[in-house]
User: Which sequence fits this backbone?
């Protein structure tokens, strides 16, 4: 864990969140500024700064995040109509928190291209 990372502090319970899922590798919670009716952030419990910092040993986290996204999509009723999983990487990619995270978006028609 990183002592100055907001997502690490959320995982540790130092900052409150509206949790929707947790296991030994993944923590998921509602985004405080939702961009869709359903907007969940999925984060690994290991501090990894971005997708560019992933190593082969970290692939289990990515796998578990996607499996958690499936469970959450079913739980929140967006599995049938569809949803989007997004990872922003780097400043120009829209990453605002330096902790690997994925956005699970759904609950409405998501246009393409995204922006």
Assistant:
């Amino acid at each position: 864990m990183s002592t100055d990372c907001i997502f690490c502090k959320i995982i540790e319970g130092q900052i409150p969140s509206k949790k929707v899922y947790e296991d030994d590798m993944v923590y998921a919670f509602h985004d405080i500024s939702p961009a869709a009716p359903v907007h969940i952030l999925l984060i690994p419990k290991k501090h990894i700064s971005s997708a560019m910092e992933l190593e082969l040993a970290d692939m289990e986290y990515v796998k578990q995040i996607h499996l958690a996204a499936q469970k959450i999509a079913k739980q929140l009723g967006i599995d049938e109509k569809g949803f989007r999983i997004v990872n922003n990487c780097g400043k120009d990619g829209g990453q605002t928190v330096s902790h690997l995270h994925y956005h699970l978006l759904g609950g409405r028609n998501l246009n393409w291209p995204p922006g």
About this structure: The mean pLDDT is 96. Residues 85 and 104 are 5 Å apart (CA to CA). The chain has one domain: 6-106.
